[in-house]
Amino acid sequence: MRFLSWIAAATVLAASLASASADPLNIRVAWVVVPNNLPPILFAKPGIARHQGQSYTMDAIHFSGTPQMIQAFGANEIDIALLAYSSLAVAIENAGMSDLRVIADAFQDGAPGYYTDEYMVLKDSPIQTVDDLRGKILGSNVTGGAIDVGLRAMLHRHGLDAKKDVTIVEVAFPNMRAALGERKVDLIGTGLPFAQDPALRAATRTIFTQREAIGRSEMIVWVARAGFIAAHRPEMVDFMEDVLRALHFFTDPANHGEAVNIVARFNKQPAEYYDAWLFKPGRDYYRDANAIPDLDALQANIKTQVEFGFLKSDLDIRQYADLSLIKDAATRLAR
What is the pTM of this model? Predict the structure, then answer.
């Protein structure tokens, strides 16, 4: 009887372990701003996330900028981050995270026919050129972020020392219009969606763009750690398949009105704020249809960081890319 009881207990334990192992993988994804980063609204449209709740679940975790995500990776608080090219390189070189892997494209800045970030002053500002920035106070979202790198690179090209000739202060994107309007700063570096604020555009002039500063940028990429990918590859392919399905929904012109409404509801803004530019060529950033990152552009971005002293060495970014997940996901959708 004791033997049979032991068998019964073992059976129950095995069933319990099997049930536990069948629980969906929780994937924690770091993001900064919607709609540039889609994680918080990826699955707002019913029917897109066909694998969610089956093989995985997702938590979208908000950060003020991409450099903070590096610390979160180090503390094992996130599994995937939407990192700027600048933060990616810093994480690999300075934080020693050589196991980071680029797994997909989020969006690109400065692609031909698409939007590029802008560096703006008030219309009545005496600043007409980059050379006029000497002695001025410049607003940047976060030190070391992509827009910050573009600002510092342009200053360097014009012989201005970012530490001696200007003062750069951190200003959160939502606060930039007020900081500029109240003349707390003389210039802001900003991008979408904030740059399309009608009140901001009515009050400002663009002095230069990020494309002019550093060329085309693989601005934001999806990044995960190699160990996490290896341990959870099936779930990750399922997740990226759903990510692609969401991307196709949002960027399909036939769904423009619905996509605009989803973004507007999330950001608590009127739909008119987004209707004219969101997911539109010439008005919005470029997103690859299958989320394949432009590794050549990313390599050029890293070279620029080395050229202007932001990095010590020129990383071979292809050593830090694993596009097999997104390619397998795209193959599934094409069937």
Answer: 0.85
